[in-house]
Write a structure and sequence with these properties.
This protein has 55 residues and is mainly beta. The chain is 0% helix and 47% strand.
């Protein structure tokens, strides 16, 4: 986790995506050049903290 912020009572963290277990899952926050998590591999994105897991 690199950074965090709160929006609408949700905690978001900036994460580096190494692997997409469900590649077609839509990103919850806008990210340039990526609409689904599979397109965000090897990039940093914001994701809800409750849905982050370390593998």
């Amino acid at each position: 986790m690199v950074d965090d912020e709160r929006k609408d009572d949700h905690a978001f963290v900036k994460v580096y995506v190494e692997k997409a277990l469900i590649p077609s899952e839509k990103l919850r926050r806008p990210h340039e050049g990526a609409k689904v998590i599979g397109e965000a591999v090897q990039k940093c994105i914001y994701w809800e903290f409750v849905d982050v897991m370390e593998i």
